Amino acid sequence: MTQEVSIPSTWRTTAPRYRLIGSKCSTCGELFFPPRNACLSCLMPTKNGFKFSGFGDVLSYTVIHAAPAGFQKEIPYIVGLVELEEGPRVTAQIVDIDPEDMVLSLQVQTTFRRYAAPPNSKSVITYGYKFIPRF
Ligand SMILES: [Zn+2]
Fold first, then answer.
1. What is the rounded average pLDDT for all residues in the chain?
2. How far is the CA of 17 from the centre of ligand 1 (A)?
3. Which of the ends of the chain has fewer CB neighbours closer than 10 A, N or C?
4. Beta partners for 78?
5. pTM for this structure?
């Protein structure tokens, strides 16, 4: 759900954002997405490069009817809080399902999609993960 990102920021975060790569605490094993340098539980350093499966369950969701710039063509659309099967929770758009068919605890998996239409021709088109129903 990131828009208006700077080009350096886009390059720096491209791989983790595209591939759902986080970090794992070297001491207690807690997992983080997006990746963190230090563990939130024990404050010890984490190791980057943990690849999440991309599977999870929808804990909560909302249907967006009044969209920010770049998303107007997509309304109504769903934004959900997804708990990955490894534990971390992420907020992302849920696509390929009608809002009226959406249910809590829906099993989902990540997919790679464009985030939003660029506001103008000089903008960077940003891509990243969204979730689709798991089949
Ligand atoms: Zn830890």
1. 87
2. 22
3. C
4. 63, 94
5. 0.80
Residues bordering ligand 1, an ion, CB closer than 5 Å: 25, 27-28, 30, 39, 41-42
Ligand 1 mean position to 43 CA, how many Å?
6
Spatial CA neighbour of 64 closest among 51, 53, 49, 75:
75
Phi first, then psi: what are they for 43, rounded to 5°? Answer: 65, 10
Q: What pLDDT digit, counting tens, does each position of 92-106 carry?
A: 999 999 999 999 999
User: 27: CA distance to ligand 1 center in Å?
Assistant: 5
Domain 7-133 coded CATH 2.60.120.280: no
Query: pLDDT tens digits for 51-89?
Result: 999 999 999 999 999 988 878 888 999 999 999 999 999
Task: Report how far residue 48's alpha carbon sits from residue 67's, in angstroms, rounded to the nearest whole number.
Answer: 34
